[in-house]
UniProtKB/TrEMBL annotation:
Transmembrane segments: none
Cofactor dependency: Ca(2+)
Superkingdom: Eukaryota
Cleaved signal peptide residues: none
CC terms in the record's Gene Ontology section: endoplasmic reticulum
Glucosyltransferase 24 catalytic domain ranges (all copies): 1-65
A Pfam family assignment: Glyco_transf_24
PANTHER family: UDP-GLUCOSE GLYCOPROTEIN:GLUCOSYLTRANSFERASE (PTHR11226), UDP-GLUCOSE:GLYCOPROTEIN GLUCOSYLTRANSFERASE (PTHR11226:SF0)
Originating species: Parascaris equorum (Equine roundworm)
One GO molecular-function entry: UDP-glucose:glycoprotein glucosyltransferase activity
GO BP term (any one): protein N-linked glycosylation via asparagine
Entry protein name: Glucosyltransferase 24 catalytic domain-containing protein
């Protein structure tokens, strides 16, 4: 299939990863890859909360939904 369908690379802004990209480029990132950092071995959930500050708000809202404290909007 690879010989039949032309594959093009996307610019770096389409997949930002803390391990390989600089902090300045995060502001223009279209997607953030919560990849494992081989240097720190930090758990993914911990890095998600650190890299994406809004993660905590989403996580809290989901926990409330699952506990029946909120109704889906």
């Amino acid at each position: 299939m690879i010989h039949q369908v032309r594959i093009k690379s996307l610019p770096q802004e389409w997949l930002w990863c803390e391990t390989w990209c600089d902090d300045a480029s995060k502001a223009t990132a279209k997607t953030i890859d919560l990849c494992n950092n081989p240097l720190t071995k930090e758990p993914k959930l911990d890095s998600a909360m650190r890299i994406c500050p809004e993660w905590n708000d989403y996580d809290t809202e989901i926990k409330k939904l699952l506990a029946g404290e909120l109704q889906p909007s």
